[in-house]
Write a structure and sequence with these properties.
15 helices; globular; five-stranded mixed β-sheet; 13 strands; single chain; alpha/beta; four-stranded mixed β-sheet
């Protein structure tokens, strides 16, 4: 697309979005003016407000928060679990008739669409969301075009898990793991666990992009630091190519039939002492607490002394709908869920970890926090909303032997066409 055509297209999109937002505002004002007095208390405060969400794994945490908040304030919060299909569009449509939620949970990956549809209140200087209260990565996750929207709720990322029954040190690089494999059979175990139990030195679910992206994460730049810069695109640089070549070398060194692997089967084998090194997500913490094993978690090692890695992370965010009827109370509840109860999130969900600054007693949680701080977030651009799927296809192709330079160049060309 030529420069003038691109500018015209962007301008047209902006006009359409402004018109849609104006229509929503008029519709909402009209609806509110027609509301019956029976819908509110005598003091003008609604009896309850709504929170919409799609990820059922948050339900136990949200239900506990709702219970405590009602006991604290007397205000009820109605939880509405929605389908992920057209989720944001349905919120926008509901806003037109004044029936949209007061709060909703979304992903940082949808930030551009959320902002352009006018679905989120902006955070201002008095917000509790700052670097003193939240991890810097969390602040980045809610930033779009230099403005902050919503409250960081929970994150997912990956770590390297190491069975210390077979080694005394954590690997600094994947080269270290290869060297360990070279010498493993000749080692005498100083631990009670027999080396005969081991079936694989290194094994993980390569087909899950959350586990494979880290091999390129340091050298893929899509959307810039905040994931919102449509001009920032670099996925085929010299180091990205070297990282891809190294990933393929691992495929040759540690053969895995990736089509026959599931994350659950790998994790079970790892916890059973059959695998020395694996890549895991937050599910592993609860399982480690249930067994007696000498296992450590650490950030993803570098590839080599020269090539680094960077885990992928995704942050969930709780947004205040500007068209809701109880914005102030909604903000109060968002703070309650995001900040006040944050230290209990993993304990309740057994999956998500809060991005609030918390010094956990649990060393495993602290390992995930360290990985999150190092991690690469997902782009927030609507034009590449399926980026994570495309990135997963690329890593799988390279693992299976596709030419690295050609695969990455093709990936860049596809992204460039959509971002420009």
């Amino acid at each position: 697309m030529k420069s003038k055509e691109r500018i015209a297209s962007i301008a047209a999109q902006a006009v359409i979005l402004m018109a849609v937002t104006a229509i929503i505002i008029v519709a909402v004002v009209s609806y509110r003016d027609s509301k019956k007095d029976g819908d509110v208390k005598a003091d003008g405060i609604l009896k309850e407000f709504d929170l919409w969400y799609t990820e059922k794994e948050y339900e136990p945490y949200l239900r506990e928060a709702v219970k405590r908040y009602e006991e604290k304030t007397g205000i009820k919060v109605k939880l509405v679990c929605c389908t992920g299909i057209d989720y944001l569009e349905n919120i926008s449509e509901a806003n037109k008739s004044g029936k949209g939620p007061d709060l909703f949970i979304g992903s940082e990956t949808d930030m551009q669409k959320i902002v352009y549809l006018g679905l989120a209140e902006q955070n201002y200087e008095d917000s509790i969301v700052n670097k003193e209260n939240y991890l810097e990565k969390a602040i980045t996750s809610i930033t779009f075009n230099k403005k902050q929207y919503g409250y960081p709720l929970g994150f997912q990322t990956s770590v390297m898990a190491v069975n210390m029954a077979y080694t005394d040190t954590l690997p600094a690089t994947f080269d270290d793991i290869k060297a360990f494999a070279d010498n493993f059979n000749s080692e005498e175990s100083e631990n009670s666990q027999s080396h005969a139990n081991v079936e694989n030195i290194l094994k993980w679910d390569m087909k899950q992009v959350g586990f494979s992206y880290g091999f390129f994460g340091e050298y893929f730049n899509v959307g810039g630091d905040n994931g919102d810069d449509v001009k920032a695109l670099d996925v085929d640089g010299e180091n990205a190519v070297k990282a891809g070549e190294y990933l393929y070398s691992l495929a040759q060194y540690f053969y895995m039939d990736i089509d026959a692997i599931t994350y659950e089967s790998v994790l079970d084998d790892f916890l059973g002492g059959k695998i020395v090194f694996t890549i895991a997500d937050g599910d592993i913490i609860k399982k480690l607490e249930e067994i007696d094993a000498n296992i450590e978690l650490t950030t993803l090692p570098r590839l080599t002394e020269e090539l680094d890695t960077r885990e992928l992370s995704i942050t969930s965010v709780i947004f205040v709908n500007p068209f809701g009827d109880m914005k102030e109370k909604a903000k109060d509840f968002a703070e309650f869920v995001s900040y006040e109860m944050a230290d209990e999130m993993y304990e309740i969900t057994e999956k998500y970890i809060s991005p609030r600054r918390i010094a956990y007693d649990n060393k495993y949680l602290n390992s995930f926090v360290m990985a999150y701080e190092k991690s690469a977030g997902m782009p927030k651009l609507m034009c590449i909303s399926d980026y994570w799927i495309k990135a997963g296809v690329v890593t799988e192709k390279i693992w299976n032997g596709s030419n690295v330079q050609e695969t990455l160049s093709s990936f860049k060309e596809e992204l460039s066409q959509r971002m420009n």
